[in-house]
Design brief:
Elements (H helix, E strand, L loop, with lengths): L9 H8 L2 H9 L15 H9 L2 H9 L14 H8 L3 H9 L12 H5 L19
Helix pairs in contact: 1-2, 1-3, 3-4, 3-5, 4-6, 5-6
Length: about 130
């Protein structure tokens, strides 16, 4: 039997195995935050993390600029649909906080909008040097 030849990246493997440090290392090494799937649809890392339900990894991907409205074969908003489908309410709330558009069908439990989710950590600003007098 032969394999299809589709290889996954270090980023995707780290997401699938739940290794936050591997995700951070892959991103620091220049991994594509919007890596495409085998069909060429971009946004695989965030979709994978939302399916898996690892909030720390979802936060890291969003902090690095992952699109919360990434598409899949069934249209835009795939991360939110995957989080909802698998019961990851806190991730769904985080995605909504980060600009994910709710599906037009309105199939979101209103309680999700009420969940308090900590905002993404922002990088600390570089302190300015005092001006010389």
């Amino acid at each position: 039997m032969t394999s299809k030849g589709f290889k996954t990246s270090q980023l995707i493997e780290s997401i699938r195995s739940g290794h936050l440090s591997g995700v951070i290392n892959a991103l620091d090494a220049g991994a594509d935050i919007e890596e495409p799937d085998m069909h060429g649809t971009r946004g695989l890392p965030l979709r994978t993390a939302c399916f898996a339900g690892d909030q720390a990894i979802v936060r890291e991907l969003l902090a690095h600029g992952a699109d919360p409205n990434a598409s899949a074969s069934d249209g835009p908003g795939a991360p939110l649909r995957l989080a909802l489908r698998h019961g990851h309410q806190e991730i769904a709330a985080l995605l909504l906080q980060q600009g994910a558009q709710p599906p037009e069908s309105g199939a979101i439990d209103p309680a999700i909008f009420m969940l308090e989710v900590a905002p993404l950590a922002q990088e600390a600003p570089i302190p300015s040097l005092p001006e010389e007098i």
